[in-house]
Amino acid sequence: GAVSVIKDGKKIAEITEPGEYFGEMSAISGEPRSASITSKGRSKIKRFPGDKLHEVIQKYPDVANHLFKTVVNRLSQANNIIVKLASDRAKKPE
User: For 20-65, what is each residue's pLDDT tens digit?
Assistant: First the structure.
C-alpha cells in the first residue's frame, strides 16, 4: 500500500511503488529522522536497522549502487521543486 511522508504535520511526499524504501537519509548520516511515515491503508513494511547499512553496503555493492541512485533521484526531484517554487515566486507581482 501507499504511505505518506509527514513533516511538521504536513504531507510532503507519497511513496506508492512496491519495494520503495524510506529513512535512508537518517541511516546514511546517522542523524535523527526528519519526517514520519503514515500508511494510507494496508501496507507491508519491513524494518531494516540503519546501523547495519554500512555493513550491508560493504558486503553487497549493488545495494549501495541502488541506494545512491535513489538518493540522487530524490535530490534531483527536490531541486526541481525548489527551482519551480523560486520561479513562481519571482513571477508574482509585489
Answer: 888 888 888 888 888 999 998 888 888 888 888 889 989 999 988 9
AA identity, residue 33:
R
Distance CA 48, CA 86 (A): 36
Helix (H) or strand (E) holding 59: helix 53-59
Type and span of the H or E element at 88: helix 61-91
Grid-cell match 529513512, residue found: 23
Number of residues that this document lists for the chain: 94
Which are the contacts of 40, defined by CB distance < 8 A and separation ≥ 6?
A: 1, 2, 3, 4, 14
Which set of grid coordinates corresponds to residue 15? Answer: 511513496
Quick check: pTM over 0.85?
no
